Amino acid sequence: MDNKGIIELGLFEHLNIADTERIHSQVIAWLLSQDSPLSPSKKSDFLVSFLGLENKAYQTIDTITEFQNIDILIRADDELFVIENKLKSSQHSDQLSKYINTLDKHVSDFWMLKKANPPRFYFLTLIGEEAGCDGWENTNYGKLLEAVQQLGGIDTHPLISAYAVSLKNLMTIVESFNRDPRQFHTVFTD
Mind listing the pLDDT tens digit for each residue in 121-153? Predict the structure, then answer.
């Protein structure tokens, strides 16, 4: 953002995908995937920071997106993390409860997870919306931005830097809206 309050457009904005929920889910999954440019320790640090986990060093992390309509599944060693990502919409159709049932039917067998470690569920939103469903923890894009920024440094991968710019832009817009919603004439029209 420059001194006039105008957001600088980054790669995700130029591609017109900065506000696409699925893109964010895919980038999160990519950062933690086997194809990630991050070292195993950086991936572990990112996961711990993003989800607010106790400081732990995960050795193996795998991800899947859009499994049975669940946005992101992350297996870190013998733990499973489930993320429902809501960028521009709210939860609907009792989906959070349905995802818990889906996991009971499919995922544990799929990844051969030990039943001793029940999945942990996270509801990721732009504005801090409450999950409103037992068993789900709330998280937000502000925490995601902090975790991505912690990956920074002189040797940061260009796509990670571009993603950090996109997240910062999203958070700037939310903060501007919260300060003065009247500036956003078309927010409540479709």
Answer: 999 998 888 888 888 999 999 999 999 999 987
Structure tokens at 26: 């895919």
DSSP collapsed to 3 states, 138-162: EEEHHHHHHHHHCCCCCCCCHHHHH
Tokens of residue 40, six digits: 């195993």
Which residues, listed in sequence order, are joined to residue 133 by a DSSP beta bridge? none
Confirm if 110 and 150 have CB atoms less than 8 A apart: no
Structure tokens, 109: 């067998």
Contact 95, 84 (CB under 8 A): yes
DSSP string, 72-124: EEEEETTEEEEEEEESSS---TTHHHHHHHHIIIIIHHHHT--TTS--EEEEE
The pTM (predicted TM-score) of the whole model is 0.84
